[in-house]
């Protein structure tokens, strides 16, 4: 049996890394007494897969993961699994949805094509922001250096714009706390756009900006 969870990651857990989050979820599943399925080999591990690593310091309202169980589909309901697991998770992780999916379905990581983010720009960095956004979108290329290698950021930016006034506020955003920018970035293997690189290209220090992932987009 394979269950797919959508969950939020907020508060202090923004500073919990990918591997530590995996361990946290595994321990919560054990405390909830979920019958975890294990991988094969000399060092079997619980079969838990996160769709995409979230950069340290980012919050999210759209994380996804798959967990494999030894239970048959007919033996337990999705709602009971959700309540049992939520009871053992920290408050800063909230399960938003849970579904039972086909064991033969492709891995989430192989189907991910893009991610959407909301960045809250402090007022002191928001001068002429509309002009800077337009210049970035109109650029033919945006050479950047990552891990000592030069790459072009521009093809990885699918959309970039100021949030409309009617857009709902993020949980981490208060009225008058800054200017919000929405970005949709490619998230394919070997071609992943990073919000902090977009912010740097806008001459905005990434460490001064609150970023929340708002959506994961899959093919099909």
Kindly describe this structure:
It is a single chain. The protein is built from 5 helices and 11 strands; from the N terminus they run E-H-E-E-H-E-H-E-H-E-E-E-E-E-H-E. It is of the alpha+beta class. The strands form 2 sheets. Strands 1, 2, 3, 4, 5, 8, 9, 10 and 11 form a 9-stranded mixed beta sheet that branches. It has a two-stranded antiparallel ribbon with strand order 6-7. The chain has helices spanning 18-31, 78-86, 108-111, 129-138, 195-201; strands spanning 2-9, 48-50, 59-68, 93-101, 112-121, 143-146, 149-152, 157-162, 179-188, 191-192, 210-218. The longest helix is centred in the N-terminal third of the chain and has 14 residues, at 18-31.
Number of domains as seen in the coordinates:
2
CA distance, first residue to last residue: 22 Å
Count of extended strands: 11
H-E string = EHEEHEHEHEEEEEHE
Amount of beta strand? 25-35%
Give the CA-based shape: elongated
- Tally of helical segments: 5
As an assembly, this protein is single chain
- Which secondary-structure class do the elements indicate? alpha+beta
Q: Radius of gyration from the CA trace?
A: 19 Å
Quick check: average pLDDT?
92
CATH topology of the largest domain: Alpha-Beta Plaits
CATH-derived architecture of the largest domain: 2-Layer Sandwich
Uncertain segments: none
In this structure, how is the largest beta sheet organized? Answer: 9 strands, mixed
- Percent of residues in helices comes to 10-25%
Name of the top-level CATH class of the largest domain: Alpha Beta
């Amino acid at each position: 049996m394979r269950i797919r969870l959508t969950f939020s990651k907020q508060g202090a857990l923004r500073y919990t890394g990918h591997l530590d989050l995996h361990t946290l979820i595994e321990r919560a599943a054990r405390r909830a007494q979920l019958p975890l399925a294990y991988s094969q080999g000399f060092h079997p591990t619980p079969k838990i897969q996160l769709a995409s690593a979230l950069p340290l310091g980012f919050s999210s309202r759209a994380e996804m993961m798959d967990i494999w169980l030894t239970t048959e589909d007919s033996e337990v309901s999705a709602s009971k699994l959700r309540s049992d697991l939520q009871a053992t998770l920290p408050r800063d992780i909230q399960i938003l949805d849970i579904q039972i999916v086909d064991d033969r379905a492709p891995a989430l990581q192989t189907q991910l094509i893009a991610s959407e983010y909301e960045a809250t720009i402090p007022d002191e960095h928001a001068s002429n922001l509309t002009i800077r956004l337009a210049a970035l979108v109109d650029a033919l290329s945006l050479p950047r250096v990552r891990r000592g290698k030069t790459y072009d950021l521009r093809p990885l930016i699918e959309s970039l714009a100021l949030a409309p006034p009617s857009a709902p506020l993020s949980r981490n955003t208060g009225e008058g706390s800054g200017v919000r920018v929405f970005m949709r970035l490619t998230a394919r293997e070997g071609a992943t756009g990073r919000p902090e690189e977009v912010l740097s290209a806008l001459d905005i220090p990434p460490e001064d900006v609150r970023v929340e992932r708002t959506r994961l987009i899959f093919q099909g």
